[in-house]
Design goal:
alpha+beta, three-stranded mixed sheet, 6 helices, disordered C terminus, metal-binding, DNA-binding, zinc ion binding, RNR_NrdR-like
């Protein structure tokens, strides 16, 4: 690590701490030549291999913008999307891989998106799971209903009847 003051090619680590989110390490350093002190922040790089073969750094913003399209017209806020993107990043980092392809990231989005909004989940899943027919949608909807046996509209209607 070059000293930012005198460009000496070495420095000594005085203190190391992990950040609050646990994704980076903050190191306090001192130059042995000029005694200048500076801070570095180190993160493990996570790269995405696009379909074209191009490799680029992982971006939470790209995750949020991709999901934003599926959430158009749905009651999902930008804060919800930011939390989803953070959840996805934490999930893909836990795999231990330093490079992931876009399809793996798309699949990692499905779980948190399903919890956030089922309609947006279906829209997004239709792309990443390559739905070819109405049967694919029907199967996905049947799976959602299986996981949530009580129809939400039915329980809302029962609640409004009880209040009368």
């Amino acid at each position: 690590m070059h000293c930012p003051f005198c460009r000496h090619p070495d420095s000594r680590v005085i203190d190391s701490r992990t950040s609050d989110d646990g994704l980076s390490i903050r190191r306090r350093r001192q130059c042995p030549q000029c005694s200048g002190r500076f801070t570095t922040i180190e993160t493990a790089s996570l790269s995405v291999i696009k379909r074209s073969g191009v490799i680029e750094p992982f971006s939470r913003e790209k995750v949020a913008s991709g999901v934003r399209k599926a959430c158009q017209g749905r009651p999902v806020t930008d804060a919800d999307l930011a939390v989803l993107a953070q959840t996805v990043e934490e999930s893909v980092r836990q795999t231990g891989a330093s490079q992931l392809d876009t399809n793996e990231i798309g699949l990692a989005i499905l779980g948190p998106l399903r919890e956030l909004d089922e309609v947006a989940y279906l829209r997004f899943a239709s792309v990443y799971q390559a739905f070819d027919s109405l049967e694919d949608f029907e199967s996905a909807i049947a799976q959602l209903r299986e996981d949530h046996p009580r129809d939400r509209r039915g329980s809302d209607a029962e609640a409004s009847v009880d209040q009368s």
